[in-house]
Amino acid sequence: MAGRLIYLIGPSGSGKDSLLDAAREPMAARGCRIVRRVITRSAEAKGEAAQAVSVEQFNQLQAEGAFALDWFANGLHYGIPKEIDQWLADGHDVLINGSRGHLSQARERYPDLLVVLLSVDQAVLRQRLLARGRESADEVEERLTRNAQFADDLLADVPSVIVLDNSGALEHTVTRLLQRIDREHACV
Length: 188
Fold this sequence. Notes:
Elements: E1 5-9, H1 16-29, E2 33-34, E3 38-39, E4 51-52, H2 55-63, E5 67-73, E6 76-81, H3 83-89, E7 94-97, H4 103-109, E8 114-119, H5 122-132, H6 137-157, E9 161-165, H7 170-183
Parallel strand pairs: 1-7, 1-8, 2-7, 3-4, 8-9
Antiparallel strand pairs: 3-6, 5-6
Helix pairs in contact: 1-7, 5-6
């Protein structure tokens, strides 16, 4: 039986990378793979434990067909290594840090994918984004407005989205993620 793609999305600052890091071991114990993305971000940049490449390297990998999924967002190129297709074919469920804007393309390629939306209280998200220091206060407010609209649209358009609130302690979010994945009979 083929595995299922678990597509984690959420606004920047919602804690997706922290959740993936914290869930890596318990997910692996369930036979679920968590994938490292390829990103055109400096290896020294703060953020997820991704494979950092130059734009030229990314374009070369893309031309070679190295990605199962790829997209451009926030000035960066993102790629999900093609090896996930083999893992899925081998019956492993695979959790990836996806893109909200690329969800429809991902659903076309993986119709059975399970969408997990990581949400955060707006005040908590504002605080996280400002503390991160990558954007001005005005840019943070614009991002918060877009995030709220996207979440409303997503919940109206996509059936069976698992929504996890990550406004509090990360360990609680990990527990809720594992419980919800169990209910979906994924990673078993």
